[in-house]
Fold:
Amino acid sequence: MNEPQMPDSQRTGQLKGKPLSGICILLVEDYPLNVLFARRLLEGWGGSVDVAGNGQDALNILDPAKHKLVLMDLQMPVMDGYESARRMRERGETIPIIALTADTNLAIDQHIQDYGLNGVLTKPLQSEPLLKIILALT
Structure:
């Protein structure tokens, strides 16, 4: 089934507005250029961003009263995104967690479900799919 397409003028207006105003996102990413790019997009849409450089830091930083969503790289040093997400779910966190990966392997979809992740975006990130999934889950 095809999703109805948003008119270009409406889509452009949505991207230029501040649709993430009042939403704080925990970005878990170890690569500085990816952090810079994602932060620029999210803050440009009015969101606020806290950054963790690995999965262990994410476990320490996550504040469910503050953060409305986690964007989680899957391949990081210290603790990868899969293990971090698993531990978050183990301790009862229900916040949406979106996997970020450059891997296009179809088996990743099964891992996403196994570890309690709510979705996946491939890198490099594209603005419209990123905004769409954030708005759908917050």
